[in-house]
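User: Structure tokens for this complex, please. No commentary.
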Amino acid sequence: MTETLPAPAGVPAEYRNIGRRVPKFDAVHKTTGHLKFVGDIQLPRMLEIKILRSPHPHARIRRIDTSKAVAIPGVKAIITHEDAPSHPYGREFALPPEYMPRDNFVIPDKARYVGDVVAAVAATTPDVAARAVAAIEVEYEKLPASLDPFAAIASGAPRIHDTVAWGEEVDHLDGNVLRTVSMGVGDVEQGFADADVVIENTFTVPKQQQSPMERRCIVVDPLPDGRLEVWCTTQSIHGLRHNLARALGIPYSRINVHQTFLGGAFGARLDMNVDEPIAALLALKSGLPVRLQLTREEDMMSTSRHPATVRLKTGAKRDGTLVAHEMEAHVDTGAYACSGEWVTKCMGGWFMSMYRVAHQRFTGHVIYTNTPPAAGFRGFGNPQANVPVESHMDLLADRLGIDPVEIRLRNYIREGDAYYAQGPNVVDYIKSCGVEQILTSGAKRIGWDRRAGFAGQGDRKIRKGIGLGRAFHTSGCGQANEVSDILEYAGSVVKINEDGTANLTTALIDMGTGNLMGHAQIVAEVLGLRAEDVLVSSTDTDSSPYDVVTHASRSTYVSGMVAKLAAEKVRDRLTELAGRILDADPGDIVLGGGRATVRGTGGAADASVSIEEIARTAQMRQWGTIMAEASERAVTTASHFTCKFVEVSVDTETGHVTVDRVVAGSDVGQVINPVLVEGQIHGGAAQAFGYALLEEIQVDRETGRTLNPDYLNYKIFTSRDACRDFDVFFADTYEDSGPFGAKGIGESANNDGASAIVNAVANAIGVHIKDLPLTPEKVLRALGKL
Amino acid sequence: MTETLPAPAGVPAEYRNIGRRVPKFDAVHKTTGHLKFVGDIQLPRMLEIKILRSPHPHARIRRIDTSKAVAIPGVKAIITHEDAPSHPYGREFALPPEYMPRDNFVIPDKARYVGDVVAAVAATTPDVAARAVAAIEVEYEKLPASLDPFAAIASGAPRIHDTVAWGEEVDHLDGNVLRTVSMGVGDVEQGFADADVVIENTFTVPKQQQSPMERRCIVVDPLPDGRLEVWCTTQSIHGLRHNLARALGIPYSRINVHQTFLGGAFGARLDMNVDEPIAALLALKSGLPVRLQLTREEDMMSTSRHPATVRLKTGAKRDGTLVAHEMEAHVDTGAYACSGEWVTKCMGGWFMSMYRVAHQRFTGHVIYTNTPPAAGFRGFGNPQANVPVESHMDLLADRLGIDPVEIRLRNYIREGDAYYAQGPNVVDYIKSCGVEQILTSGAKRIGWDRRAGFAGQGDRKIRKGIGLGRAFHTSGCGQANEVSDILEYAGSVVKINEDGTANLTTALIDMGTGNLMGHAQIVAEVLGLRAEDVLVSSTDTDSSPYDVVTHASRSTYVSGMVAKLAAEKVRDRLTELAGRILDADPGDIVLGGGRATVRGTGGAADASVSIEEIARTAQMRQWGTIMAEASERAVTTASHFTCKFVEVSVDTETGHVTVDRVVAGSDVGQVINPVLVEGQIHGGAAQAFGYALLEEIQVDRETGRTLNPDYLNYKIFTSRDACRDFDVFFADTYEDSGPFGAKGIGESANNDGASAIVNAVANAIGVHIKDLPLTPEKVLRALGKL
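Assistant:
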């Protein structure tokens, strides 16, 4: 149960960084309003962009007339599909171009959902741009639309895409299935035949919005030599540079993307969206800096979690041993590919990696519909699989009369077991596992033995329930094979300043999680400095080594590992120089407490030199800047495990569910900074509870219009809904493959929460609701009151 | 006579970079007005600073009352000596703190020249700040002033500084001599005794202004965590960071200085001035961003070349062989140390390194006066020594009846000879020398044989003259000993982009000379790329390795060498990866024409891979970013040599001198980019001609007021004065210690010009004027017409 680690003997406490509760270095900049987000950037003569969007879910652009719009004073540039590059581009940052699905056009000649881009205007003010948008005349040829994944795969359904390019190859599609993902082990039919009990259910999980506070914003400054300076709400500056260059058909180095902090992202900025190439093209066309800041409505319609319908069949022996597991998912990717295949692959991987089951099969259909496109979202297919699986564990436990904690303890995968890291191609093995710890300790903390008593509370108005959700996730996308369909490498530069402090440069994006603060702690730990003495520099794609993207719970595990490697190179240089100064063998020198000290000398004055003194001597004697770069790929992932025990109250009159208590147990290996990990766990839980109870982007099945793209009508789980009785604890594990024993957390914090709520409500009301979110209406219906 | 080199066989011409006439990459940004200088920076709520300056040349501040000023709406912060740190600080960037003279205070309690800082105000607008400055009430105790160096060293002269700190040691001064620099070889008295002829003269050289177009400007943004973001017209971002931190008494890493292009500098931005700490202190006090942009008058009074009175005594044999040389200089450093000692040391070094003389002595007195402070200026003591020495060479030639070219050819130092690189401590040896080439070829090009005919032109109104000046300079401040009183190291980072282009990051400042373009060519040459494929990234002190400062004709020789080292590390990585791709030994692979090719295969398709393909494969296979850093000190300097032959017309009625023709011969080793070197030679000549003919900051010897701190009254040598008949040529030398054979040029371009003019005017009018500048008044006086 790791908390802040004590400092080792002889080292002042503030020099012990791993496990220390250090506030984020950017917190003061954010709270004072000093930190500049993309939306704060003002450039002289900057134009504002507005977009003309399709009112139809499926329509070909017959004719488009911008002549009236162009004539409006202040309008500087307009683009339509006629001005835009005609090649399709791909959005995903983590896939090499060779494997990336490409079905987007900078401006398409056919609208595929209500809101798809038809034209874009850059003008001196947003109002002028909006007036110009209104003045564009479009003649649409309305086409029949597929607004539902099952309608979309029915025979004769209107075709949304004829082709999709995958790298340089082109797929000609038969219908609206982008890809079907299949994976499995054993013989599922035989497994079910061998089972003593088989249950099968169909679950639906909703189209949740990522809901970052910051709206998508892009600023592009065109330089006179044709290069573009770009600031963008993006999870990857290098990924954006590459995809934007390919969308525009220009060399990568013509674009320089600047690193900024994000006001949240949760996957909504995981890939390039359609707005970045539009802004860049308008900058090139107008020759002036431009800004495109989406409205809240536009932003909410631009990304979402992939909604899915999931059929799950589970077979078990009487003692609870799982023997067969089969999942079939219909995943709605919306009008464009948008990570749909990769999310579905991962969904299969997460499904197959939760429990030891000899016979498993996963089939995932990735389906185009004429609805707003989905995107990556914290968990990346995991909650979609977790809710059915964890529901089934409870249902099976009930059926077999086994305690739900116990049935999980019998079946969970553990040290040495194989798992699927990111879909069918990537197998890895569990190296550290604290599942037993977190399950048993969590059960005690929540008072699990009260659960049985909650079954059958009769007609009480408020019914209590306790539920458990458990999740498996991986840290990053590493794999043993260097030729991978997912990129997973990072780079860092560490430099010692002449005052003995250090600078760290990494292209990694901090979405608000504090991952860069964690990096500073890792570097400080290697160098024997205080975390506050490691300054994280701002950078851009011109200056920084490649870092793939902030995603997949990889920041600490992958990028942090590479920052550690760079710091170790600097450490070696420091000990070498300390050896020169102290006339000692560098191999005998250790760093700690801000000093380099010859081992075994007890810190005698002539056997110890401060880092500052080394740096100043290096300057004085012109030994050069103490600086190193590391750039490495991850060859492993690290599976991390979480569970959430929740206690809820269900108001049987209103159908409203209140979360009363949360116990969150996490095996994240060594905790680098408890403040930050706790932040992830609190935030992840809120997002999961919203998924379970409230949140769903609703698309009208007749018109294709999004009904609630705003926070008046789309209800998120807010601080008013959040539960203050929230107990966070950690397993006492250490992951050898991670930096200082650390694993990931960002997504796991989210994966298990919805399952816990669904199971707790079932405990309270005796009905297992399978259609998320569990709105009051659905709860009342389950109670037979509607 | 190197011009553009032909491309080697088999490599497309654009891939051969060294010697190629490539336009500066920043030219288009400057000419389109897109490039941002410091003065273009606008920050929200930024305050403007105005400074209250002393009207007295020497006065103690008895009392200062800011109460009325503070009460003016819009005034946000005022500082006086009462608010400022009480420790003295040093200005120089290239000296380690341990050796730096420290006699400046952020705001002194005693004004030492008319214009010295008394208080500073930050307010919402410049007008408000100016009104507040006017409202500050000061009671001065006027002190007697020393307005002339000889007055200042007379007994009983008023004392300007009581103490000067040198690093941590404090000198208690007896009078107004900061330091006396002495150096010598042999036995000068014996040398003069052995001489057949001895001449002795006293020369005065003026207080020239550097005259960059851009005025000094500092923007400081205080961050909520106490750090300062700084943009400044400075020749060294790292030097400024260090000196500013020390002036404020805060750790270096609390300051981040951003790299910008300069609109000229010429040494005026070589050191920190007094304005940077004032701006930083006002930013810290107000908590708001501030800007301090000097007025033209303030800027012109803030720096100048050190004026000097130089007595020179030269002894020679009848055949012209020099046997004894003695120089004594009284150098006026103004009210503060301001590089005065180092300039004087260098002056001695340049003096002693021009000609082979067995017995030499240099004595330089660095004297404080109550006049505006001097500063580093292109040549750094060289023109002050060059004018007397080159005048004497002509005078001696005349006396002995030897041709001036011939007497120089007999005596110049050459390959293998020792020289003093930067004052008495640094001896180096000449490795390449093209003096004979440039002197003999230059004489032919100018038509030297006409010179004799110009002697005695009788009473013609316009008299023609030809003159020669020759100069010696060093490239950078390197030395064999790592413990040096001058820092001379640099760092560079080179990175390959995934499209096969490269990025170069260096903290080096481009003052407008194109030194960064030269770096791009060097990196391109190493990597076999085109210069336009090497992008120079903008950086800051947080992110970049240390680079000491743009000075001392070091950019190409020192920083360029380090950029080459970084590029070579990247080259080695590229050949390693190409070896993997081509299944070949990396040692057999050569880069060129944008490709890596196995030697001896004639570029067969399976034996060659483009850099872009290597980079893309490295991404696809996750081999990491191809990137390397180098940081090294220079252990040698490289002496470079120039000469200028000029032909002038002297109007004997007006005294006006016109430059009719220039022949500039330079031994700069291998020319990296002729366009850039020619630019240096043209600009350096104009600055030298202004020094010889026009330019002098005049300080009233009664009041201490500067009489002409503006371009109406201070006449610089403009494009109207410049000579279009300008013949530039280069010696065919190659310096083994330099990158691709290159040496420096920046200062040499300036050092020889004034001497050439003085000698040409003497040829024309038969009188050798020894008091620069040769204004019409002095010419007429020499002609006996005044």
